[in-house]
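Dissemination and training. As part of the outreach component of the grant, students in the summer workshop were shown how a complex can be specified as a set of sequence lines and then modelled as a single object. The example used during the hands-on session is reproduced here so that future cohorts can follow it. Participants entered these lines:
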Amino acid sequence: MSTIIFSILVLVLTATLAAIILYFVAQKFKVIEDPRIDSLTDMLPGANCGGCGYAGCRSLAENIVKNNSLEGMRCPVGGNQVMEDIAKFMGLEPEESAPQIAVIRCNGGAINTTSKIKYEGVQDCLYAHLNMASEGGCPNACLGLGSCVAVCAFDAIKIDPETKLPVVDEEKCVACGACVKVCPRNVIELRNKGIKNRRVFVSCVNTEKGGVAKKNCSVSCIGCGKCVKECPFDAITLNNNLAYIDYKKCKLCRKCVEVCPTGSIHEINFPPRKEKASVEA
Amino acid sequence: MKTFRRGGAHPEENKLTNDCSIEVFPLPKQGIVFVSQHLGAPATLVVQKGDRLKTGQLIAKAEQFICANTHSPYTGTVSKIDFATDFTGYKKQAVYIDVEEDEWEEGIDTSKEIISDIKLDSKEIIEKIKEMGIVGLGGAAFPTHIKYMVPPGKKAEYLIINAAECEPYLTSDYRLMTELADEALIGIEIMKRALGVEKALVGIEENKPSAISRMRELAKGFVGIEIVPLKTKYPQGAEKQLIYALTKREVPSGKLPIEVGCVVNNIGTAQAIYKAVQKNKPLIENILTLTGKNLKQGKNLLVRIGTPMQSIIDAFGGLPHDTGKVISGGPMMGKAISDLSAPTVKTTSAILFMSDKESSRKEETNCLRCGKCITVCPMGLEPIRIAQLAENRLWEDAEKAFAMDCIECGTCLYTCPAGRPLLDMLRLSKTNIAELRRQRAQK
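and obtained this result:
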């Protein structure tokens, strides 16, 4: 009997002592964390994609609270809605920016180019690019091996089995920019989503001379400059035999699409043209 | 028999063109000469469109430290200066020359006479090597004169000549040693003088007995040139492996051979140096092997640099049937040519035709954990581990696993029973680690 009482006493005494020590230690080494970090983390989407440039959602929240500003910090996944909420919570001005989407700027693929070599090495764009394994001969073309598919955390990119080109799912893409970073040929670009999801862009990144580019790919930009002359808003520039449409200046008038001789300027989500159809008929 | 310490493999030798003597390939109609054909900083172009060039005239001048001159291999007019695709698919600046009958630049001795008397001293020889645009013909195209400028505090003890020719199929060095051994040996003597060393060791694989006996016979006339037969094992001709086989010295990780008192050059470079120093002839031609199992008659050709590969192939009956890949260089380290109109460069040692079956990869399956890649790696690395790190894009960890020590010999890939892309992943990590180091250096 005395053994039981003795052991209970020892345990109670040890527990009390430990509790007292722990209390003082906890007081001494207390980490004061801003409770706003937790609330901000809850507001963010929690995808941890790294699209904001920080290691994850919590890291972004920490940085917002630490700097107490929203400058340069933006969650592309959450978009304006989330940023507004965060700004309201923090008492800051939200930075408005148009929603963006990843755009594939290559239309070569299996249909518009003729295969010149057979690549059977590692199925990884990074390695294929290292070996300049361009099946169609274009040194800037999409390699179609799907490094962007592998890196996408939102399942928004798929390789079309027919064209061997990546296709972006407009519903799922959150413009985190992971694919842009991974693409060794800089084929993917983040562009403004545009009014009613309408976009006009040059679907080519080839900087070779017109003749060479055209020989390899029937839909390449040949740098003729017709679109530059046609554009009423000075949105198009021609550098290294390649036209580029500035999405900030573009007013989606589609005049450049009509004049492009190779059809390398794409229009997306526009209603079909009426006048042109009647002229052809 | 001397050999390197660990690893290595013995692929089928396939030296099909051993008995074909060197033939001079006729001049092409149009020559495409790359402005920079070496490792290091690009050379500066000194000719313009419309210029008339003589054979041996300077096209591009080396203005930076690690850089080499380029000379015109042809007489003719520069029709254009444009970007051309090289055999790997990269676009590089090139000079297009409409070729006419040869008219040599003044001072170049084109006679066949052997000049064995060396008049120049060490400094003049190095200057001459630099002027004539000599690069290492073993494959890396490293400007040769840099190797001979021994950094202060270091001392060269041995000149090591790589005549192992461990790559299967290749026979150009072998033919050089049987037909032009005297030139090569005088070249070695010149290199010895440039370095100021007493001893030169020439390593030749034992599968070339006639080259060994011919070189030994002629080497009797020289002091301090030793011909050493080596075991036939790939990669016997790799720089660090060759140094170990010949001197039992090991080059530390990330260091150059001069650290252990050695300077390594290829036998082809020795002959090029002979021509440069004794005959004033720049590096404008090289010996290449045209070979393949399906090719009717293989050849060893003396080809001017800048000859389109297509014209060489056409001259000997076009592509053999069932060609899966055309490779520039040997089957182990060579690169598949993506565009046959690409011209030859200073280091093109072979054009190899491989049949579809011969060239296609093994089907890729899961790693068996057999450890063969680790056993055969001549550098003592763990290829499978580095490959796994590379697949997960962990470049920093790959660096810690000594990925940069990989010599890209391909023995691991050749041996792997599961067909894992080991070499590919090692190359990928090397490129990315180099990029990381560049970023670090900028910071």
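The interface with chain A takes residues 88-91, 324, 335-336, 338-339, 360-361, 421, 424-425, 427-428, 431 of chain B (CB under 8 Å). Students were then asked to discuss how this feature might be tested experimentally.
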